[in-house]
Automatic annotation (TrEMBL):
Gene Ontology molecular functions: flavin adenine dinucleotide binding; oxidoreductase activity, acting on CH-OH group of donors
Lineage: Eukaryota, Metazoa, Ecdysozoa, Arthropoda, Hexapoda
Keyword Flavoprotein: yes
Entry similarity comment: Belongs to the GMC oxidoreductase family.
Binding annotation for FAD: V138, V275
Organism of derivation: Popillia japonica (Japanese beetle)
Pfam families in UniProt: GMC_oxred_C (PF05199), GMC_oxred_N (PF00732)
Keyword Transferase applies: no
Cofactors demanded by this protein: FAD
Domain Glucose-methanol-choline oxidoreductase N-terminal residue range list: 136-159, 312-326
Protein name per its UniProtKB record: GMC oxidoreductase
InterPro entries the record matches: FAD/NAD-bd_sf (IPR036188), GMC_OxRdtase (IPR012132), GMC_OxRdtase_N (IPR000172), GMC_OxRtase_C (IPR007867)
Amino acid sequence: MVVVTVVLTAIKTATILIGLGKIAVLPFLLASLAYYHYDLFDPENRPIAVDKVDATYDFIIVGSGSAGSVIANRLSEISGWKILLLEAGDHENEITDVPLLSLYLHKSRLDWGYLTEPQPTACQAMKGQRCSWTRGKVLGGSSVLNTMIYIRGNRRDFDRWEALGNHGWGYKDVLPYFLKSQDQRNPYLAKNKYHRTGGYLTVQDSPYNTPLAVAFLEAGQEMGYDILDVNGEHQTGFALFQYTMRRGTRCSVAKAFLRPIRYRDNLHISILTHVTKVLIDKRTKRAYGVEFIKNGQKYKVTARKEVILSAGAINTPHLLMLSGIGPSEHLKKFDIDVLVDAPGVGKNLQDHIAVGGVTFLIDPPISLVFNRLVNLNTALRYAITEDGPLTSNVGLETAGFISTKYANQSDDWPDIEFMLTSTSTSADGGQQVKRAHGISDEYYREVFEPINYRDQFGVFPMMLRPLSKGEILLRSKDPLVYPLLYHNYLTNYHDIAVLREGVKAAVALGETTAMKRFGARLHQIPAPNCKHLPPYTDEYWDCFVKQYTLSIYHYSCTAKMGPRSDPMAVVDASLKVYGVDGLRVIDASIMPYITNGNINAPVIMIGEKGADLIKQDWLSESYPRNLTGI
Ligand SMILES: Cc1cc2nc3c(=O)[nH]c(=O)nc-3n(C[C@H](O)[C@H](O)[C@H](O)COP(=O)(O)OP(=O)(O)OC[C@H]3O[C@@H](n4cnc5c(N)ncnc54)[C@H](O)[C@@H]3O)c2cc1C
């Protein structure tokens, strides 16, 4: 009876909350899960959320994403401190656990649903020329919607941060914080000094790979690259992805860092709570609390020690500006009292973009064709043996870090990451990928519809160190009105050139013997806006990269860390906001430059290190200075 009730509730959640009713196999999947994995369904497993918050806390954390959840865990280790974690979204659910279904979460109620302003330089294949900036609005933040790829970046990223004047952020300083979180389940990797077991965050290999995963590795070797651990000594080369997964299901930060501490009574978590402003004393310039809306009511809560903004690289600068910290002329236009003129807030926005549509058709039926895979058999495999196609991260199987001619070839700092997928845009017949990426009907119809449901693989070349920078501006002083998002992608010609070379290398990968074995051939229908240009020329590719420009959702750097001498720096190396006491930013916003790879692991590291910086400031001298715990 309990199982039946749980299944019915789960189906209701899946259909009403995130609109998954269209997957016919869903009820069966959920029933199998409930039967074999009651623990995953058990609502008692979830972090406990309070209905009402108290009047005051020691620390208030805004946002429970990849950084915020870590901070909530680490600060509440100190039993004498009382912590409040405020999150605009709701709990995760059973569907957010299933790796293959993550695209269904885009544009659902678990996504803020941001769209960029139309700009002519990129996303020309998208509806209204707007890029979809998917962002988690749920306990666990974007770690609940992401594709779980675990990449730490390159040691040079952090050494560059330090060289800018951010003492304590060099690679040797941050490596212990990557290790602190990690529970590496691959026994071979766990043995090397770059990995560790025993942390809260489970990192594992995919339980399921298609034959294409290994073929991609072989293709990389044929192109002259090594197969290596991309989170180890060197980065240039090919590898199967490592994922933040646990036994074939998503290991979000809520699962990793909040569930195990659900009984800590000094941590209060309030969900469906939208913070609208940081309260700052105008005279002393000290942050003393926040204002928020819950159940349609406005509330205030105060902090004895600090307010910590971990609302992510879009919402953190938005909140700073609403609170009077930002470019003064811009704030004045909206009649916002300027407390700190901080010109860097919302600027320096960096993201990783990839080129979509580099699709290869193949002959054997070995790729992830959606309607072939989501069936009773795969549902049972997922539920009983924790593997099978449902554990695939939407086909992302292999990484390739390569250097184009624009990177220093003798250095190990690649400028392109191939995301090699055993599926591609039209393998689901235009149902999910098209919707998630926001591709226009006309573009899809002309380019992809002719190969709906065909066996295919994709090479998504992602540019790692963009020079084009976007910005976030207020649209209104009403905190519930979304800000203006300008991506400015490809406004620096260098970025077009790097991506073009990335596409050429992707085409070359399809020509390797390893891929030709499957009859690989490039899908040739030209991009509609570029068909006047001769194919395979630089002019054609330069046009092509501006069409299906795909954000990889790594917005960052919008409240950057830097020394006081840098007028655009928003926080110092302790992540304290310049010009205000009692306020820190700890999330993807603080990166001065985006890291060389997918950024979830670096943001978790920032959460770990940020929590330690707080402890170092507030705990007595006798408290251990090295808090990495390893
Ligand atoms: C679809 C998708 C796929 C991705 N895939 C990968 C991947 O495979 N690998 C990888 O490394 N990275 C990936 N990323 C990126 C990575 O997940 C994010 O960069 C990272 O989670 C950002 O962490 P954060 O703490 O800065 O922000 P978030 O995790 O976004 O957390 C911010 C939290 O703050 C809450 N919040 C915001 N405003 C308010 C407010 N006013 N009041 C209360 N709460 C608020 C939000 O609801 C959210 O929960 C992906 C991201 C997305 C969206």
